[in-house]
## 1
Amino acid sequence: MGTRLQAAPELDLVIFGGTGDLAMRKLLPALIRLQHDGLLPARLRVIGVAREPLDRDAFRALAQQRVAACLGAAFDVAAWDRFAALLDYACVDATDAASYEGLASMLLAAPERERVFYLSTAPRLFATICEQLAQRGLNTERSRVVLEKPLGHDLASSQAINDAVGGFFGEQQIYRIDHYLGKEPVQNLLALRFGNALFEPLWRRESVRDVQITVAEELGVESRGDFYDQVGAMRDMVQNHLLQLLCIVAMEPPASISADAVRDEKLKILRALRPIAGADVGLKTVRGQYRAGAAGGKPVPGYLDEERIPPGSTTETFVALRAEIDTWRWAGVPFFLRTGKRMPQRVAEIVVNFRSVPHSIFGQTADSLNPNRMVIRMQPEEKVELHLLAKQPGDVMHLQPVHLNLDFAETFRSRRLDAYERLLMDVMRGNLTLFVRRDEQEAAWRWVEPIMDAWKASTERPKAYTAGTWGPASSSALLGRDGLAWHEEI
Ligand code: NAP
């Protein structure tokens, strides 16, 4: 996907927060797999940056230990040794200008190399880091900067981050990560929609009854209670991942797969989302918080009894909402979004429910026949299923649902890239298609903010749900009012 298929052979990938959880659990393992597949730039250098005083060997040893622990049986010493040869380290305190000296001299010693600065630190450091890089002339035209979520906690703070980073890097140099866009089934949805003539005539209000997007986690807040309590499910999941998925389902065909053609279309969808404010918030949104229940067959505490959660917190661990897109294509089609912690299983899926046949010739009423459905699964497995009705073998004409499984693992035997592999490769190649543009991000904040404001102003607590269930009863009622049900309830 994209225009440039090869990264520049000479590239420095600088990971701020290079000793952190994200770097060790996701970024380094992704780079090892890319190297195994021959997908890294020929002369790549990966420079970890953090405050911990380490030299190159100590960083390599620390990284080996952490990556091995994370990969378990998949850790391959020979592959590690090949990869470790690319690793270097610079000790920098992002807030201390003098400490950039070592990093600057490493980079300036090879001025011809392209540079990618991956900011895997708290976002409050983004502005300082970019300013310091600029002061030392490291933000050349051939440099890029990668921003991890969370990009702010509301519109104003996200604008402040964007202004600060934008002061030193042009928009075409800024790669805002939404790792859901890096998932293979999401790109396959683009391929299915725009590579086949079959779906386009059906992909509209006349044929689609509703769309459901679910990202459910089995885990609770684990040890990150203090962080999560400041954020909640709306900011952590809906504002970014779920709205991006909605855009991929709903956008008009872009004129090409180029970054701005795709992002222009996604932006139009975000701007066409009907605002939910005032009394509508109570009708069209559900916020929940888990109470004690079970996960993986074991009892687990409720949110308020988790570590580092302030007493009486009203932070939501579950959101369901009914969105509508005011365009000719989608007028009147509800898009139900749902995300939560402590759900029965870890699932990420998009379900497109088509309308029933207008008249059944088979004796059963049209409504009693299962309508066609497309299920795009991102987790736990990656697949796309088309649910159809077929005749059950035998002498009577009895219809039963069958699933046409577009099993990519089966069809394409080659290994599929995970999201961070895909996105790291795209950053190194300079392909922005799967990254979020500033105006998209801000349009998403504009839509979710009035909902969060209404929740904040309300005296009602989030609805309680038992850990290990699919959320509060009002989540089912949200669809029930349209005579519908969530996919797993059907
Ligand atoms: P983390 O484990 O706490 O790591 C933070 C990293 O930043 C460490 O390497 C730390 O090393 C470094 N650091 C902190 N303050 C610094 C400073 N002043 N100057 C230079 N380096 C500094 O955090 P993380 O989980 O990796 O997450 C990093 C960012 O990515 C966060 O914003 C997080 O929200 C986001 N994110 C994380 C994940 C994930 O799965 N972990 C997923 C999506 C987004 P020193 O303490 O030695 O400086």
Note: Residues 200 and 404 are 19 Å apart (CA to CA).
## 2
Amino acid sequence: MKRILIIEDEESIAELERDYLEINGFYVEIESRGDSGIKRALHGDYDLVILDIMLPGMNGFEVCRLLRTKKDIPVLLVSAKKEDIDKIRGLGLGADDYITKPFSPGELVARVKAHLSRYERLTESAEPKRDDLKIRGLVIDTNARRVYVNGKEVTFTAKEYALLFFLASNPDRVFSKDELFEKVWGLDSMGDLATLTVHIRKIREKIETDPANPQYIKTIWGVGYRFES
Ligand code: CA
């Protein structure tokens, strides 16, 4: 799932952008100030930034300039003024594109998609990317090792992730507790099967709407567990 940061102080615009991007399958976060926005853009893991120009704390030109010293992800500048566009061109800020307010959400989404695919072509590495695992409302981004439940990111410990990833990669097969323990903790690891049970419970609490009546990881009594595709 591609991650987008919107830095925009007009809440209604930021929310409109977010809604359209989410409908189109993007994960979106919003910052309403330039100074906090640049911090998040630099420290976070985003695939693209949508950046307003008139912002409290630090204007979009400065945010863009600072971001460019550290990252080469696509930046889409948003401006309400014709003069800004001339300035963007003149300053050579390294913004990949700009869009003027008011714009249609469809246009924004199209621009975002175009920039992401262009950037992907430029940065394609030799290592093939694996596909996300998508099971109903659950999305496992197997490259970034991130998990989303109904569009919201949920954090997992390394072992919880390993267990969930193994089960989701092998759906509709029953695994005994011994098999799962061996797969995730390894043969020589100290520990007992109760650890596995605890991890299954924690995963269910994170991914299931009703953990007592799980839809993803089913208990097969007397045998083990099965992940339902
Ligand atoms: Ca603004």
Note: The pocket of calcium ion is lined by residues 9-10, 52, 54-55 (CB under 6 Å).
